[in-house]
């Protein structure tokens, strides 16, 4: 088993990883920027190293500084969490080239899935359903228009190197495609260093469903269960639940089989997620992308399976077998992302936390990155905490979520708790028959 672990991340996910590592008797090393020196994850690790100023490029994305911290502290392994360098194949290769254990998938799998066009083509060849779209990048706006004419409007214009809901726009006709193509291409070049653009069928009413997979140390790939992620703003998730209220037992079998096939196709190891779009009108689903890392929403899968996914990641990276038997799930879990943002327009609202009182009670879990007195800075993602509830069934989980939202007290930064109170009283959401347009309809 790994004996010492450097956590190359910050906030709630760093605390989450450190908690499991400490339970397993693994020595933990936190890295942090100058701006994060007072956050809880820094003091909760056995050792901490400042790797640079607030700018992520000079700290949490600074490969040389992170590897130097690992060397100076005698770390044996690196866990990247999510975001930052977690899906950077060059970083994964550098970690292993320095004789360290990478707690994640093979670099080749990250590369294969990092380009959305390449990933689509690989999945199509393997027999995994993909939405109608381009097999090669649309190098010019004229090529995009030609592709859209074949695919049929509306279309999604996507950055091939993007992820996490970034670098995407919908075009309803040739005029809007011309406009959005230039915007997405420029954004992709600026954010990802790759201006490649994919044109894909856009489904006006669709659900976002994903499957948690684990590539085991013995080479097998297993699929645990699905998560519903359709409550989104700007294509980024706000709420997740498991199991999905839209997935029947027969559909679940198809989802899980496709996810396993996707993992096997790229020789996947460790934790990953196969994301799909589900057409509720037909029951057809299409591969969207594979996230080659631990997801923000992993706790809801943990709760319905009764396992610790971070522990399984560490065991896989250590060459050990899993500590659980794959079987039926129990209960229902919901996760709400508590962000420092305006609950109406969802614009960032950082600030010093003057009040922070987390809800308690049976079936309530809070994975937070902050405590009272900390400051949410504008340098990083607005996520402050994840409010997770587990109930005997969906109605029970919804009741616990309402109570937990009412009991969560935050003052200082703006927060989206009022939005969740509204959502948890919304008939469409309560009925379970919702799609990715629900937030827009509420606004």
UniProtKB/TrEMBL annotation:
Presence of keyword Nucleotide-binding: yes
Domain ATP-grasp stretches: 120-318
Pfam hit, one: CPSase_L_D2
Annotated GO MF terms: ATP binding; biotin carboxylase activity; metal ion binding
Gene3D superfamilies noted in UniProt: ATP-grasp fold, B domain
Domain named Biotin carboxylation: residues: 1-443
Top-level division of the source organism's lineage: Bacteria
EC number: 6.3.4.14
ATP-binding among keywords: yes
Record keywords: ATP-binding, Biotin, Ligase, Nucleotide-binding
Protein name as annotated: biotin carboxylase
Organism: Paractinoplanes ferrugineus
Gene behind the chain: accC_1
